[in-house]
Automatic annotation (TrEMBL):
GO terms for molecular function: hydrolase activity. GO terms for biological process: antibiotic catabolic process. Pfam families: Lactamase_B (PF00753). Keywords: Hydrolase. The lineage of its organism: Bacteria, Pseudomonadati, Pseudomonadota, Alphaproteobacteria, Rhodobacterales. Transmembrane segments: none annotated. This is Quinoprotein relay system zinc metallohydrolase 2. InterPro entries: Metallo-B-lactamas (IPR001279), NDM-1-like (IPR050855), RibonucZ/Hydroxyglut_hydro (IPR036866), SoxH-rel_PQQ_2 (IPR030829). Residues 94-278 form the Metallo-beta-lactamase domain. Belongs to the metallo-beta-lactamase superfamily. Class-B beta-lactamase family.
Length: 352
């Protein structure tokens, strides 16, 4: 397989460049990939006046950067994110991303933090199959999961998301893109754009890949107001998105009480393997979810007590974090994330 690539640079800062891959030009034949490459690149750049482009080339799949994919069940692959916050890594690759291979095509679950990560995921997928990437499912709007989506759209994928995702993503898009530019080298984010889903899920939806089905489920507000999970029905592999964290401290960006409600239910019922948004997969729901449930429950209790004592927010936050400190073992970035969570929890529970 050959991929069309070229160097793109910021029109305003021509020394700041990164590599762009246009998946629509993929071909098993280099000459075929090169035919029309110039026109493809021109068209792509025409819609992006902030970028200038170099000469197109077609490179062999093996010569391009690819994310490592691990097969966790037959035809189901995951690239594991670094167990870190976005600020702590050079490329923002912190979320777990999934690839499900069926008879007729591929479904991708989350697309990564940037165009560069989406491209590296695309190259990795092309190492395991030539089947079309038919679907991309976004588990929620957070940048580490959603900003690589345009690559999958250009590859032909239909994008599925929770019905509340478009509003949430649109409201934060500018801030997310600014954060990428602030945190990383241009090579990591050049060409990254926010794209909106094609299909919105209100309750449940089903995606067929010929010989296997995926059930998508949209949830009430929990981690965010647009959380969506994916069950691969035949293999009983459950992708929880960021409704489950392991190792990295969970971030409350929706509703703490809603999240506790979700955890109290049995959302992964029948799952043989559960893949969290961050951290390693586990076959056992209780083992995977208990530490997070304990932590969020303690957060709610501490926030409730702070409100009951009449502490103002500024004094409540350190008191809440202090009280949760004995639970910090095994949670990365506990202090910073818990300070943010304490603010969110206090604000939510203040009006209970
Ligand atoms: Zn998230």
């Amino acid at each position: 397989m050959y991929h069309l690539v070229f160097q793109a640079c910021l029109a305003a800062a021509p020394a700041q460049c990164g590599q762009i891959l246009l998946p629509a030009a993929d071909s098993p034949d280099r000459a075929e990939c090169l035919a029309g490459a110039g026109a493809r690149v021109r068209d792509w750049l025409a819609a992006r006046p902030d970028l200038s482009g170099g000469d197109p080339d077609c490179r062999a799949n093996a010569d391009l950067p690819a994310l490592p994919l691990e097969e966790i069940a037959p035809g189901i692959w995951v690239t594991w994110g670094a167990e870190a916050q976005m600020e702590e890594v050079a490329d923002g690759h912190i979320a777990n991303l999934g690839v499900v291979l069926g008879r007729d095509g591929v479904a991708v679950i989350d697309a990564g933090v940037s165009r560069a990560q989406g491209q590296a995921l695309h190259v990795a997928i092309r190492r395991i199959t030539d089947l079309p990437v038919a679907h991309l499912v976004l588990t929620h709007m957070h940048p580490d999961h959603a900003l690589g989506a345009e690559v999958m759209a250009e590859a032909g994928a239909r994008i599925h998301a929770h019905h509340a995702l478009p509003d949430a993503l649109a409201a934060r898009a500018e801030g997310y893109l600014d954060a990428l530019a602030r945190l990383y080298d241009p090579g990591e984010w050049i060409g990254t754009r926010v794209v909106m889903p094609d299909a919105l899920v209100r309750d449940r939806a089903r995606i067929g890949l010929g010989d296997r089905d995926l059930t998508l489920r949209a949830w009430p507000t929990a981690h965010t107001d647009n959380d969506l999970t994916v069950m691969v029905e035949d293999a009983r592999v459950f992708f929880a998105g960021d409704l489950l964290f392991s190792g990295l401290t969970p971030v409350v960006d929706g509703s703490l009480l809603g999240w506790l409600d979700w955890l109290r239910g049995d959302p992964a019922a029948g799952a043989a393997l559960i893949v969290p948004g961050h951290g390693r997969a586990d076959a056992d729901w209780t083992r995977l979810s208990d530490p997070q449930r304990r932590l969020l429950k303690a957060l709610a209790e501490a926030a409730r007590d702070a409100v009951a004592q009449g502490l103002p927010l500024s004094r409540a936050v350190p008191v809440i974090v202090d009280r949760l400190n004995p639970l910090k073992d095994g949670w990365h970035a506990f202090g910073e994330t818990m300070a943010r969570n304490a603010t969110a929890a206090y604000t939510e529970l203040e009006w209970e």
